[in-house]
Amino acid sequence: MTRKRIVIMISGRGSNMAALIEASDDRAFPAEIVGVVSDKADARGLQLATSKGIPTRVVARGDFASKDAHDAAIDKELAGFGAEIVCLAGYMRLLTPGFVAKWQGKMINIHPALLPAFKGLDTHQRALDAGTRIHGCTVHFVTPEMDDGPIIAQSAVPVLIGDDEKTLSTRVLKAEHHLFPLALRMVCEGKAAMQDGKTVFSDIEHVEQIATAFVSSPSAVREAVDLEALARFTP
After folding, report:
1. CA angle 165, 149, 19 (to 5 degrees)
2. What b-and-e string marks burial along 146-185, b requiring 16 or more CB atoms within 10 Å of the CB?
3. What is this structure's pTM?
4. Residue 171 contacts residue 219 (beta carbons within 8 Å)
5. Would residue 111 show up in a list of annotated catalytic residues for this protein?
6. Chain segment 100-112, per-residue pLDDT in tens
7. What are φ and ψ of residue 61, in 5° steps?
8. Which of 78, 64, 63 is nearest to 9 (CA)?
9. Cα 38 to Cα 45: distance, rounded to the nearest angstrom
10. What is the DSSP letter of 3?
């Protein structure tokens, strides 16, 4: 098996980056993390990547006169790493249309909500304010519109009575750490691809086999959960 060359882009702590690195430690995983790029020199995830022997690059926003110039510098670093797929793992800046077009179908992002609900920031508090009983996370292909690309996979978790933003975000983050490697595997193996603005699955049987794998919180749930209903939110 030829492993795909993956570059991860981060802006902060890099917890989802860590999950991808851990998954790639298994030689049977179809992806190899070859580099990490951050737009912030103080991103905590850079230290973790370095400790794992993964090369890092900082492309600071303030060093460039425009977003186009900034993204062009990032693209140069991706080319230097020989990236085949780019994973946005907490990268907190919208990318320019030209950059996104170049990497269309080869760049994926994880978002802490069940898209198309709660695009943008503060997703957990917004879910609580809306009174939703189900929340979760989504991995999708990146398009120029924010959090609007075709969905690859989703993981649903219950919103429990008494939850606050911290407890709910912790539950969702655990789901994210399981979901991102799953979605990356699907893309690397060609089982999920972006075609004509949609995600096309080439191995329906495989997708059905994993459909119930990430339908509830990995942690204990204090109340009964309708797994059949939650399964509707999976790949």
Report:
1. 55
2. ebebbbbbbbbbbbeeebeeeebbebbbbbbbebbbbbbb
3. 0.88
4. yes
5. yes
6. 999 999 999 999 9
7. -60, -40
8. 78
9. 9
10. P
SS3 state of residue 32: strand
**Is 212 within 8 Å of 231 (Cβ atoms)?**
yes
Q: How confident is the model at residue 206 (pLDDT cuts 50, 70, 90)?
A: low
Q: Can you read off the two tokens belonging to residue 166? A: 């911290």
DSSP per-residue string spanning 151-191: EEEEEEEE--TT--HHHHHHHHHHHHHHHHHHHHHHHHTTS
- Which tens digits make up the pLDDT trace of 52-72? 999 999 999 999 999 999 999
Considering the candidates 70, 111, 124, 177, report the single residue annotated as catalytic: 111
DSSP secondary structure letters along 89-144: SS--SPPPHHHHHHTTTSEEEEESS-TTSS-SS-HHHHHHHHT-SEEEEEEEE--S
Query: What is the Cα–Cα distance from 200 to 153, expressed in whole angstroms?
Result: 12
Task: Decide if 76 contacts 102 (C-beta within 8 A).
Answer: no
